[in-house]
Amino acid sequence: MREELAVRKATRLSSKLIYEVIRRDGEEELERPTRSLIWSGIAAGILISFSVLGEAIFRTFLPNAP
Predict the structure, then answer these.
(1) What is the rounded CA–CA span in Å between residue 46 and residue 38?
(2) What angle do CA 13, 2, 12 make, to 5 degrees?
(3) Element (H, E) at 4
């Protein structure tokens, strides 16, 4: 119930406010130590690679269907 109320309130936010929230979150992330950012990037790259590999495996072993 709380989540639904939060979503309803969030739909009334202006695009400028949403941009500002995302911008501030980004600046906070960039203040993290360099080592932490590097490991975060490596982890993201590995996960993206696994998602592509997983799709390839599914397409190989599952029958063709729409």
Answers:
(1) 12
(2) 15
(3) helix 2-10
Write out the two tokens for 45: 């790259």
Segment 28-65, tens digit of pLDDT: 988 999 999 999 999 999 999 999 999 999 999 998 87
- Reference 9, options 55, 17, 50; nearest CA is 17
Q: Write the DSSP string, 9-53.
A: HHTT--HHHHHHHHHHHHHHHHTS-HHHHHHHHHHHHHHHHHHHH
Identify the three-state secondary structure at position 60.
Answer: helix
Question: What is the DSSP-derived secondary structure letter of residue 66?
Answer: -
